[in-house]
Amino acid sequence: MLSYETIVTFMLASVLLSIAPGPDNIFVLIQSALHGRLAGVVVTLGLCTGLIFHTLAVALGVAVIFQVSAVAFTLLKVVGVAYLIYLAWGAFRAASSSIDGAEVPVLSRWSLYKRGILMSMTNPKLAIFFMAFLPQFADPARGDLTHQLLLLGGLFIIAGFSVMATFALMSGFIREWFQTSPVGQRVINQLAGVVFIGLALKLLTTER
Q: What 3 state SS string does the chain have?
């Protein structure tokens, strides 16, 4: 079972990373601003449904790697560290996001939900991120790894849904902030970059 400290740390990191401007929450924000708060919530539900796929893939696959192959575990760790550093570099260099809804198509709620699922499930960067992010919070000494990874994935989904649904419900204010506060966006991106670097260091020192 995960420790209380691990859960708190993981949730704080998950919330911060969910807040950082990216294609998913920008899409949620645009749909909410153009077509109403419910549209944004529906997209968020779709995105979080897709995250279940990534959680299962990591829980079932990484647990085996942890247990049977030292070489595969080391390779996974190196790839994860490299990717987290890449994400940190991108976050530090990120320009302020521009929101322009002029070319956003009007979609039905069912189409929005499916779009969210497909955006999540077919995103290879998200799959790699989950492989790099979730395992470092799991501890083989604290019980079954599969259960721990499933719990971590569930907590990340809760954090992501909470943040993006808030974006949807506060779409007017947040849209205006995104458009008029490049400094604020830069600060969030830099905070996300610091989190990515911290996660990379933590993963680098993780033992099998």
A: CCCHHHHHHHHHHHHHHHHCCCHHHHHHHHHHHHHCHHHHHHHHHHHHHHHHHHHHHHHHHHHHHHHHCHHHHHHHHHHHHHHHHHHHHHHHHCCCCCCCCCCCCCCCHHHHHHHHHHHHHCCHHHHHHHHHHCHHHCCHHHCCHHHHHHHHHHHHHHHHHHHHHHHHHCHHHHHHHHHHCHHHHHHHHHHHHHHHHHHHHHHHCCCC
Q: Which amino acid is at 179?
A: Q
- Collapsing DSSP to helix, strand or coil, 93 comes out as helix
Tell me the C-alpha distance between 105 and 64, whole Å: 42
pLDDT in tens, 166-207: 888 887 666 666 556 666 667 766 776 787 787 678 767 766
pLDDT tens for residues 25-83?
Answer: 777 877 776 677 888 899 899 999 999 988 998 888 765 665 566 666 677 677 767 87
**Would you state the pLDDT for residue 48?**
94
Cα distance between residue 203 and residue 75, in whole Å: 12
CA distances from 208 to 23, 67, 156, 181, 205 (A): 34, 8, 23, 43, 10
Whole-number Å distance between alpha carbons of 73 and 70 = 5
Confidence of residue 159 (pLDDT cuts 50, 70, 90): very high
Q: What's the pLDDT at 47? A: 92
